[in-house]
Amino acid sequence: MRLSEYTDYTLRVLMHCAAHPGQRVTIGTLAETYQVSKNHLMKIVNDLAHQGLVATTRGRGGGLRLLRDAASIRIGDVVRACETDFRLVECFDGSTNACTLTPQCRLKRVFDEALRAWFAALDGATLADIAKPARTRPAPAVARPMLPPRSRRSA
Description:
By secondary structure, the chain is mostly helical. It contains six helices and two strands, in the order αααββααα.
């Protein structure tokens, strides 16, 4: 499975908003944080507003914020709203299927089960599950990985 960049950045926008509850997030901040063009983010934010997931305020002191509690936003729903095509293979679309193996092929069933399992996992996760509020303190230093002991050579 592979998500489009559009879906990836949509999830990042939502996660950023969820990690900063009660704050208005600006498109400029998002663009700088994720190194994405403001125009691209404006399309994403506009779509999120039309879906009723974020509220936007224009002008000085404006920005966006979540309209719903992060725990009520299922990741599967967000992905379904963003992605346009879940045909993993040609035979998933009966109107364009020209595969000669279709009558005896069992691969479609396997892919269909995989797609259903993938969405079951996404539907089991909410925005609150994947976004943590921003830290107020600096994160602790990362510990060095433990290396295996060196073998000793006999003298």
